[in-house]
Amino acid sequence: MDLTEITVQKPLIVDEIEWEEWVPYTDEGLALNSVTRQESNVRLVFKCFSELGEIVHNATVLLYSDKPILNSHKLLEIYTQYLQWYDNLPDQLRLGGNSTPIVLFTQ
Questions:
Q1: For residue 93, what are the CA distances in angstroms to 9, 50, 60, 64, 86?
Q2: Domains held by the chain: number
C-alpha cells in the first residue's frame, strides 16, 4: 500500500485537550502530589506516532519489497527520515519535559 492512499487526516491539536491533567495512580489511589501532575498531550503523541508509523512503513517496504531495489542511498534516506522525526519532536515530548508513560514510550 502506498501512503498516498491514506486519506485520514492526522488529529488536530486542541489546546484544551492537550492541557488536560494526567495524574498517576499509586497503591493508595490517585497521587495528590502536585509535582506528579502533568499535561496529557494525548493528541500530540498520537500525531507523532502516526508520523513515525509512516516512516516505519516506508522502511518496511524498502527492506522487504522486491519492487524498489535496496541501495545505500535509499537506506540513508530512510535513516535521515528517522533522525528528522526525532529532531522535530515538540518540546512537550522531549525527555525531561514530561514523564507521562506515553511520552516516555515515545522516547
A1: 21, 14, 25, 31, 10
A2: 1
Global pTM exceeds 0.90: no
Q: Is 93 exposed, middle or buried (0-12, 13-18, 19+ CB in 10 A)?
A: buried
Q: What are the pLDDT digits (tens) for 35-76?
A: 666 777 777 888 888 889 899 998 998 888 877 678 899 999
Q: How many CB atoms lie within 10 A of CB 103?
A: 23
Greatest extent of the chain over all pairs of C-alpha atoms, in Å: 56
- Answer yes or no: is pLDDT of 33 > 70: no
Report d(CA 64, CA 105) in Å as an integer.
26
Domain with 80, as residue range(s), is 3-106
Of residues 86, 83, 77, 15, the one with CA closest to residue 48 = 86
DSSP 38: E
